[in-house]
UniProtKB/TrEMBL annotation:
<feature type="signal peptide">
    <location>
        <begin position="1"/>
        <end position="36"/>
    </location>
</feature>
<keyword id="KW-0732">Signal</keyword>
<protein>
    <submittedName>
        <fullName>Uncharacterized protein</fullName>
    </submittedName>
</protein>
């Protein structure tokens, strides 16, 4: 009887040991496979617009959902149809999520390793994608050289920040505030305008980040875009609104339609100002051009107005966005 009990105990131990070994082997195989998949799956790669017809080349990635990638490529193709100088059609697009909450993505277009344009795509509260702004040429928000100069004015450098264990974040707050958040241990965060390098008020930016909503689910059907037709860009010389402040005492110009804008654009100088909300727009800013987009399928036209370009990044922004908080003034009334 004792021998039988002993044999049973020994058999149970052998069985438990065997199961443990098999479990370890299975886990080892799982993690090895997962690790191999992780190594074999590259981060979101830049994609040539010539490959856009094959939708399988668009991969879901942490950096940008497929819907965002598709939206960016379609708008880049539209820009390339009228702006061959910057090779939008042949550009490779890279994506960077912008916090807080990741409602927007910075899309940088490069050709032969040279920056030739950018876009910022945002998701509305309803989950619909929109082109918040764009620009052509080597100017782009979040320029590293601009950041270095801004940090120097605060007696800092990127090297110092990293050495202290600090972090640098790219942020975007609607309607139009592109900024860097510089965090350092045991120090208050710094907020720097990513279009002109100005230091932003910390209290205002902390409030923005505190009230930021979580990322919305993108409505792929509502965000699907049909072909856009883009008119040639109309440019004008830039200037500084600070050179002549008479516009501050003048009445703003009323704009009711696109034709009103085209007529206004004939003026020698136009200033955009959002008054006490200029922090969200980088204003007051000179108007340096405009470009019309047309969507025949939706019987829709969108006017993008070029802001800045004198001492700040030139940005093409929807007129409706600018009219939410600001107004236009004739520089020399």
């Amino acid at each position: 009887m004792k021998r039988t009990v002993t044999q049973r105990i020994l058999l149970q131990r052998i069985t438990l040991i065997t199961l443990a070994v098999l479990s370890c082997a299975a886990l080892s195989t799982f993690w090895s496979t997962a690790s191999a998949e992780g190594r074999s799956t590259p981060p979101l790669a830049s994609m040539s617009l010539t490959d856009l017809k094959d939708n399988t080349s668009l991969q879901h990635d942490m950096l940008a959902p497929v819907a965002v990638q598709q939206f960016a490529h379609e708008h880049a193709l539209a820009l390339g149809s009228v702006d061959e100088q910057f090779n939008w059609k042949k550009a490779e697009l890279s994506f960077t999520p912008l916090g807080p909450g990741t409602h927007s993505w910075l899309v940088q277009a490069t050709f032969e390793e040279k920056l030739m344009g950018y876009m910022i795509i945002s998701a509305t509260d309803q989950g619909q994608l929109k082109l918040s702004e764009y620009g052509s040429g080597e100017q782009s928000p979040y320029d590293r050289e601009l950041l270095s100069h801004a940090l120097e004015r605060q007696h800092l450098s990127l090297t110092m920040i990293h050495a202290d264990g600090g972090e640098l974040g790219l942020r975007y707050a609607l309607p139009l505030l592109a900024y860097w958040k510089v965090e350092r241990p045991n120090q208050e965060a710094l907020y720097i305008d990513a279009t002109n390098g100005d230091l932003l008020p910390s209290e205002t930016l902390r409030q923005i980040e505190t009230t930021s909503k979580p990322m919305v689910i993108i409505d792929t059907e509502a965000s699907a875009t049909s072909s856009w037709l883009v008119d040639s860009v109309h440019m004008r010389p830039t200037f500084s609104p600070m050179d002549n402040l008479l516009w501050i005492t003048s009445k703003p110009v009323k704009l009711n339609c696109v034709q009103d804008w085209i007529q206004l654009h004939k003026e020698l100088g136009i200033v955009y100002s959002a008054n006490d909300r200029n922090i969200f727009y980088g204003g007051p800013l000179p108007i340096s051009g405009y470009q019309l987009w047309h969507n025949k399928a939706q019987s829709q036209s969108v006017l993008y107005v070029a802001l800045g370009g004198h001492t700040s990044t030139q940005r093409f922004v929807p007129l409706d966005t600018l009219l939410e908080d600001g107004q236009f003034y004739v520089a020399n009334p």
